[in-house]
Amino acid sequence: EPEEVFALFAHRPGCFYLDSALSSHELSRFSYIGSDPFHTIKSHGQVMDIVEGKSVRHQKGDPLAALDATLRRYQIPTGSPLVPFIGGAVGYMSYEIGRLTMGMPLEATDDLGLPEMNFNFYKNLLAYEHKSRRWFAAAADFSGGRGPSVRKRLGSDIEKLIALASGEEKPAAA
Description:
By secondary structure, the protein is an alpha+beta fold. The chain is 24% helix and 29% strand. The chain has helices at 2-9, 63-73, 98-102, 148-165, and strands spanning 16-18, 30-34, 39-44, 47-52, 55-60, 88-93, 117-122, 124-129, 134-139. The strands form two sheets. A five-stranded antiparallel sheet has the order 5-4-3-7-6, covered by helices on one side. It has a four-stranded antiparallel sheet with strand order 1-2-8-9. A hairpin with a 2-residue loop joins strand 3 (39-44) and strand 4. The longest helix is centred in the C-terminal third of the chain and has 18 residues, at 148-165.
């Protein structure tokens, strides 16, 4: 079951679980689990923390423009015929991020100190198809490379993901 597999990932950095409650709808056929993002953008106002691997940089500017540039940078040319989502961005924008686009002051008290925008980018994930009760492991190549070396690297990524999902191995964070 997805909940049991998610428990194996819950301690991993950037772990997510997108559970489809309406499994009868075509777009809700799958639930997704992933962890260990390779790129993260968090913002509070116009101050951003951008994490790439172990590198962290702080930047000022428009977080929506930074997100747009990152989405363009990490486009996947084609998806998979088996699984609609094979990697990419998972995150959120808070209601408060709208003030940047509307030019309105923030009047609410920031009592939680959470990022107004937080997106993590993933190279691999697990997908659970509810109807067939089958698991799929997916790995995306954002380098635009081709050939045996890319297939070997993606295969290795999938093997590590399957080992983690089966409780056999805990791969190092990306």
